[in-house]
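Fold it.
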Amino acid sequence: MIVYRIGRTKYAHDLEGEGARLYGGRWNHKLTPCIYTSASRALALLEYTANISIDDIPRALSITTFELASFDIHEPAISELPGDWRDAPAPASTKDFGTTLLKKASYAFVKIPSAIITEEFNYLLNPMFSDKQAFRIVEIKDFVYDLRIKL
């Protein structure tokens, strides 16, 4: 399976979830590593756009393509997610939920619906999973953000 992430070029080669560890995200608290990816390039761009202000978009962006090994993908049912999982900004309940899943390290990947388009999916890659061969980077390309998206 192939998934995508758009982010700062300095994190393009990261397989340890350093960016999310430093800043946290919808599904993880700070200090818990995670790599946020999406099922398509378009969803990766939409998720990136929703989570950054126009003033914070860096000049050096990359799109990273990951290949996921054939491990089971954990997919919690919508009914298992916190009731406020789509709220913005991301509530503590989603951070608690995801952090618990990631710290168990039982899953290499967690399939989560997008809070923007619930019929589309994001994949949390777990750097704490015991098998470091669970996912790998297959391509990194420079990405030029089209500011018309934010205007």
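The beta strands are 2-8, 35-38, 61-68, 73-74, 109-113, 121-125, 135-143.
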